[in-house]
Amino acid sequence: MAVMDQVSTDRYAIYHADCIDMMDALPPDKVHLSVYSPPFGGLYHYSSNERDLSNCDDYDAFFRHYEFVVRGLHRVTMPGRMTAVHCMDVPSGNSGKAEHYRDFPGDIIRLHEKLGWHYVARYAVWKEPLAVRLRTMQKNLAHQSLVEDSSRCGVASADYLVVFRKKGENPVPITHPVGLMEYCGEREIPRDVLKFRGWTGKQTQNRYSHWIWRQYASAFWDDVRMQRVLPFREARASDDEKHVHPLQLDVIDRIVTLWSNVGETVLTPFMGVGSEVYSPVMLGRKGIGAELKASYFRQAVKNMEVALQGGRDFGETLPMDLGDDMDGAA
Ligand SMILES: C[S@@+](CC[C@H](N)C(=O)[O-])C[C@H]1O[C@@H](n2cnc3c(N)ncnc32)[C@H](O)[C@@H]1O
């Protein structure tokens, strides 16, 4: 494969490379889980590299290119194991006046079904409408639009996590002998269940794990900490139309915990600044990632050095914070 740069340790291997080449170089059926955000159907352009999936002529061209990625993931994934795709409905333009959408999650589902995956779950990650308005300045989310002509009003779209299982029998069960141990989210764990954490007795009595499981098994993930993301601002290159928006670590931590065992391999084809490698490594898995853009790769290298030192409590303030002054959102 044509690798421009790479860093390998016994806990992760990250490549400045095209993910399709990177997966071609891997053996079949060995990856235990993959998790990623693809470029959203060409909505934002990360670079002018012709191998960049965001650099496509239109939505259909994106899917023709993306098909190679989904085929590659299918080949390298162990039978019976999962791939989790973070996505959203794609607005017709990125001018902030989005008036209609394409069913991007639905098109992703149909592509996976065509290529040998079973569609097994869809989770919605809730977004607070005013925070979305302040971050994106979408006109259809302004209260003023409601006042003037509510036919122009829109929705603060959720993010979706669509999950697929490769057909075939899983040879290695993903076990949780004492249930789930950590909760990744804003909601406070009820005090009366804390004493069951790590319960080694009958698991029907493990009220701590049962409480976490109920949050994770819900189709609505409504307490993801939006600011809990890896540092990304320094990775911005001078030609950036929009800087990369890292996936929240709470989302990745949940996926990695639910669908991989400690010591297993988790892959991301679209690494960005490294979130989907950082989380697995912090949770005792091995991470593999590819990123095409040099400035993002360099930031991923730095972020992974933090992981090797034991990690940090990230909570970078994003511009999606609610401001004191609501006028901006009106
Ligand atoms: C939505 S971003 C992913 C951000 C990532 N989830 C994070 O938390 O940092 C998509 C990324 O895919 C990268 N990309 C696009 N085409 C690629 C390809 N063929 N191989 C590797 N990376 C690619 C882009 O440069 C961009 O960083």
Count of helical segments? Answer: 9
Q: What percentage of amino acids are in beta strands?
A: 15-25%
Unreliably modeled segments: 317-329
Average pLDDT figure? 91
Element pattern in H and E? EEHEHEEEHEHHEHEHEHEH
| Biggest sheet, spatial arrangement of strands | 1-2-11-10-3-4-8-7-9
Structural class: alpha/beta
Indicate the radius of gyration in whole angstroms: 20 Å
How would you characterize the largest beta sheet? 9 strands, mixed
- Count of DSSP E strands? 11
Distance between the termini: 51 Å
Into which percent range does the helicity of residues fall?
25-40%
* Shape estimate: globular
List each distinct ligand once. S-adenosylmethionine
Give a nutshell description of this structure.
With 330 residues, the protein is of the alpha/beta class.
Task: Explain this structure.
This protein is α/β, with parallel strands linked by helices and 330 residues long. It has nine helices and eleven strands. The strands form two sheets. It has a nine-stranded mixed β-sheet. Strands 5-6 form a two-stranded antiparallel sheet. Helix 7 crosses helix 8. The C terminus is likely disordered. S-adenosylmethionine binds next to helix 1, helix 8 and strand 11.
Please specify the SSE layout and strand pairing.
Blueprint: E1 3-8, E2 12-17, H1 19-24, E3 31-36, H2 59-76, E4 77-87, E5 90-91, E6 101-102, H3 104-114, E7 117-125, H4 129-136, H5 143-148, E8 159-166, H6 207-216, E9 220-221, H7 249-259, E10 265-268, H8 275-282, E11 286-291, H9 294-308
Parallel strand pairs: 2-11, 3-4, 3-10, 7-9, 10-11
Antiparallel strand pairs: 1-2, 4-8, 5-6, 7-8
The structure holds S-adenosylmethionine.
